[in-house]
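Open question from group meeting: does this chain pack into something compact, or does most of it stay loose? Before anyone orders reagents, we agreed to write out a predicted structure and look at it together. Recording both the input and the output here so the notebook holds the full record.
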Amino acid sequence: MARSRNAIPSYLLHKASGQARVRIGGHDHLLGLYGSEESRVRYGELVARFAGGQTIDPIARKKETQPDDGPLVATLLQAFKQYAESYYVKPDGTKTDEIDCLQSAVKPLREMYGFTPVNDFTPLMLKAVREAFIAKGWTRGFCNRSTNRLRGIFKWGVENGIVPVATWQALTAITPLKSGRCEAHDNDKREAVSDEIIAAVRLRLKQRNQDILDLLLLSGARIGELLSVTWSMINRSDDIWLVELEHHKTAYRGKLRKLHFGKRAQAILARYEHVPADARIFNARRDTFSKALESACKRAKVKKFVPHQLRHTAATRIRDTIGVEAAQAILGHAAAAMTAVYTRKTDKLARDTAAAVG
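Structure tokens returned:
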């Protein structure tokens, strides 16, 4: 694959001199002793200017870093890491997916600007890190979200006396990447999967994965929600089985999330009655199921789809056969502030929908 014309230049070794170098515009720029703090700082400066489309002056040098320049970016990142590891956790103590997203975003920032004082961190430097995201092949949306995460770290630094207000305010001036106006690509829009494709893929899945697929379509659950269910969580006292999830995507916003299982879904779940009450009914990982779907799509020679598209499919089926309010009810779409007002109406509609579709 050809190198992107805007790919971030690498930090390299100039063997003849033992100095670090970076090649920009066909010219090597020596940065100082390879691996040294000075060379890392200089590298970050030149890369920032390159990402901003500015001319590189091979002679001009920034002043040497002085002790009164304040904490380094690496110091900020270490402090935020300690905070994040105690903040982004679920009630059971396990970390949320946000930790992994933060680690992905932070890594290029640390590598490129870890030795840069936070006082000297500029919008051009943040844009250079964003170019590194693009070079990794990340989607435009993920690049923008990752950039916002980094801005959020600097904002946290302002709150905790590590970052000057002016530094964070300057970073807010960066506009998001626009569709069609940058090198970052967009994923195809996630749409409902056709019945023909689902049928072809289903035949190429093992029984457990077939059951997971069917339950996702019948319940409108997210894959993570379904895989978290245990028998002890299911209220089977009524015709429609009910699960009230404590841990879900929008729990931190005060939203309720319930899964409703009709007769068809109950028949599928009954195959797993041997599973202990407090063990997950489906002892599977989200990425394992995703890979199984991808492999089945390949063998069926159909367009690849991801588990979340089954939620779109469930919503489309319910909307087309029963109505949009039914789809909203079964998928749990409701404003947090209105949840208490409409809980009774929404629950009844979700129960009726589960009874109708399975």
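Observations to bring back to the group:
Residues 195-357 form a domain with the hpI Integrase; Chain A fold (CATH 1.10.443.10).
The two ends are 48 Å apart (CA to CA).
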